[in-house]
Design a protein that fits this description.
With about 400 residues, this protein is of the alpha+beta class. Helix content is about 35%, strand content about 20%. It is globular, with a radius of gyration of 24 Å. The structure holds zinc ion.
């Protein structure tokens, strides 16, 4: 009997992601939910640790519950980080985050199989809290590693009333240790492979793409106050309808973003009192603006604020705009982008570059070291959804690009 051909790195990475779809690696029997510091998270880390150790890596868990597997190099003092996140949103997909971790693990397994050591160490990272789906503070692991974690874990509470500090203690970790940044000097690059979570690579007919940077993002919370009144007795010219003003504001966001070639979204809106026979007195809504460069985003925000002030004045509506978050754009390292381009071209593919509209751990780690990202095509651009899908051939191509990239880093 001939042996079956060995599984490719891509197939192995996908099968590990698929294994992690269900208990004990998911909190739910028929859906994938793996939130920070849950039993499902713990089970995933135990499995990862086993694979890492089998590949000859020294494994540790840092104070932010990031699992780190270290594969030593031939020379001391220089470390390449490869990783992504192992947590998920509720009812999420199997590959968002996890695929990047499994690909990092897979390329180290391949090096170990070849008995090959590079002139730098590789650490494979599995961050535990990128999504923020439990404590509503995202990127805890990467912000801790970068030394920019400002939040006090005692002040963050999940929906069951458990603080992050208590959950960390349940993991055998000391919450106080989070306050002291690791201040690493040995890291020369962080590489994050990640599914694209958008439709661009599929439209281009390409398995992988080089990320140029992560979009600048501004989130606003807007509150409009008009006057609630009887829907039958208040003539149209005498109304101060907060929802009608909000409707105009939503279309304003859409118009500004489209004209500027950036993205603008109103994703949440509440109406008070929310009754069919009452003119809406109050309305609250979110605004999310993202652009590759901060200038375009800031121009759009200023335009929105001016337009909102104008329409509210015209309609007799009081308005309040609160800044929720303003994140700087993250630019990926130019030299690493060039090496990725060479690796991709060397494998016979067009080295296509694209910006990321979604936030990633790379964004936080940019405060520590240069960062690079490799996007992998996902079917129809769908993510944060059980329908998330990646082909084994595409995952294999990503692994090949990464191995070739490591060789280029070695020779540089
Ligand atoms: Zn992700």
């Amino acid at each position: 009997m001939p042996d079956a051909p060995p599984a490719s790195l891509g197939e192995i990475a996908l099968s590990r992601c698929d294994l992690f779809k269900r208990p004990p690696y998911s909190e739910e029997p028929r859906a994938l939910t793996r939130r920070f510091l849950t039993q499902a998270h713990r089970a995933a880390l135990a499995a990862l640790q086993g694979w890492m150790e089998a590949a000859g890596m020294a494994v540790r868990l840092d104070p932010a519950a990031t699992l780190i597997g270290r594969y030593e190099g031939t020379q001391p003092g220089r470390t390449l980080l490869i990783g992504s996140h192992i947590d998920s949103v509720r009812d999420g997909g199997a590959y968002d985050g996890a695929l990047g971790v499994m690909l990092g693990l897979g390329v180290v397994e391949e090096l170990a199989r070849q008995g090959r050591r590079l002139p730098f160490a590789i650490e494979v990272l599995a961050f535990g809290d990128e999504e923020g789906s439990r404590f509503h503070a995202s990127m805890t692991g990467s912000r801790y590693l970068a030394g920019t974690l400002a939040a006090d874990p005692a002040g963050l509470v999940d929906e069951a009333g458990v603080t992050m500090a208590a959950a960390l203690r349940g993991f055998g970790l000391d919450p106080a240790a989070l306050q002291a940044a690791p201040a690493r000097k040995d890291v020369f690059l962080y590489l994050e492979p990640h599914i694209e979570q958008g439709p661009v690579l599929e439209a281009e007919g390409l398995p992988v793409g080089i990320v140029t940077g992560i979009a600048a993002q501004t989130r606003l919370a807007v509150r409009l106050a008009g006057m609630a009144n009887h829907a039958g007795t208040t003539p149209m010219p005498l109304r101060r309808d907060a929802l009608a003003a909000a409707a105009e504001a939503v279309l304003l966001v859409e118009r500004i973003a489209a004209a500027a070639g950036i993205t603008g979204t109103v994703g949440a809106l509440t109406v008070e009192p929310g009754m069919g026979n009452v003119i809406p007195g109050h309305c609250q809504f979110s605004v999310d603006l993202r652009a590759p460069l901060a200038e375009a985003r800031d121009r759009a925000e200023a335009e929105f604020r001016a337009g909102l002030a104008e329409l509210c004045a015209r309609r007799g509506i009081a308005q309040e705009v609160r800044l929720v978050q303003r994140l700087a754009p993250c630019l990926c390292d130019a030299a690493a982008q060039s090496l990725l381009a060479e690796a991709i071209a060397g494998l016979g593919l067009h080295p296509f570059r694209l910006a990321s509209g979604a936030g990633h751990d790379a964004m936080s780690l940019a405060a520590l070291c240069p960062v690079a990202m490799l996007f992998i095509r996902c079917r129809a651009g769908v993510s944060h959804n059980p329908a998330e899908s990646v082909s084994a051939a595409d995952a294999e191509m990503a692994a090949r690009v990464m191995l070739d990239f490591l060789g280029r880093l070695e020779r540089r």
